Structures are given as C-alpha cells and as structure tokens.
Amino acid sequence: GAGVSQSPSNKVTEKGKDVELRCDPISGHTALYWYRQSLGQGLEFLIYFQGNSAPDKSGLPSDRFSAERTGGSVSTLTIQRTQQEDSAVYLCASSLSRGGDNYGYTFGSGTRLTVV
Amino acid sequence: QKEVEQDPGPLSVPEGAIVSLNCTYSNSAFQYFMWYRQYSRKGPELLMYTYSSGNKEDGRFTAQVDKSSKYISLFIRDSQPSDSATYLCAMDSNYQLIWGAGTKLIIKP
User: Fold this and answer.
1) Does the CB of A27 have a partner CB in chain B at under 8 Å?
2) pLDDT digit string (tens) for A41-85?
3) Among A71, A112, B71, B81, which lies 20 to 30 A Cα-Cα from A13?
C-alpha cells in the first residue's frame, strides 16, 4: 500500500486479556519498528526488525511483550496478560534501511490501546 | 535526567508569527537531528533532518543545531493554523532514535 497500515485503530481490552496489534509496512521497506507513545511522553522504542529477524529487542518492557514479522512484511505485536500501564498508542514505522543517513521513517496512525 | 528534553507546551501564537521550538540533549555522540510533526491521532511525519551542526532551510522551516551547547531549534516563519500540531525532536544513538516528549503548538487565526 501507499502508507503504513495499522489495525485495529482502537482497542479496549480487559486487564489480563491478550491483545494482538498488526502492522502492514510500505512494500519494499526492510526495516520495521514498533514504538509506544504515552500521553505527554516521547516515543518509547520497543523493537526493530530487519527483514524477519529482530536484532534489537532492547525496548520490550517485559516478557509479556513479543513481536514477530513474517515474509519480510506484516508484523504483529502481542501483549499477554495486559495491565493498565500498557494503555498507550502503539506506533509502527517502516523505512528502506536503518542507520546512517536514512531516518526517513514512515509511521502508521497507531493503535490506541486502553486496558480497563 | 532524560537524554532529550523538550518543553511540552502548549505554545500558542497568532497566525503569521515566527515560532521557535527547541530541544536540549545530554549525549555529545548524537550526530543526526530530526524534527517530526504529529497531527492529532496520526503518526509522526519527518519535517527536517540535519547532520551535525549548522542550519538547514526548507520553505518556511529552518532547523538549527548547536552541538557545542547541545541545543537544537526549529523555526517556523509566517505560521499558519495548519501548522498546529505536536512537534517532536529526535536524535540518533547507535542507529536508534531518542525522542523528545513533543511540544504542542497552537496557531490562532
């Protein structure tokens, strides 16, 4: 597609339930990133994919968070046993490559997650 | 102390004014400095990108980097109501971007 697509756009879930968030990057973009944005906070890095591998998982806040990417394209971020502090906007971005002088990330509109 | 500090605002100015948005940082290793604009319920979009110190101009926007002071700025000339958004600065650290919290800008018609 023309841009980065994320679904669902909004998700309300009960505490303790699992959620899956989906990201469909721009075709041909090998790098994919997940960020979390809480109210009044900057973007918090979660995980980076190059192709299907995740060389940088340093930002995942706990073992309840996991992500995968298949076919060098779609990525899924899974949060198990959701907690109220997981409530945030989860943003996905893709780019042609990572590092150097290429910071032309294209972001999706995000998934707004609310844990009640 | 955060690596990147940015005043959250909101900053409210009249249409046509010159706007100055700023970030300070602590890590002298940062080399790439970016400004992103984020409209409500949208993802950030890249506005300006600067390598090392100096100025860069693109239309009504000018980005400045002062590495000696660890201070970056974004200037918007002839501000328009459509410029109302949150502006986030970002800088690199081992190819991972470190973000400011964003400044909410309101341009009053």
Assistant:
1) no
2) 788 999 999 888 887 888 999 999 999 998 889 999 999 999 999
3) A71
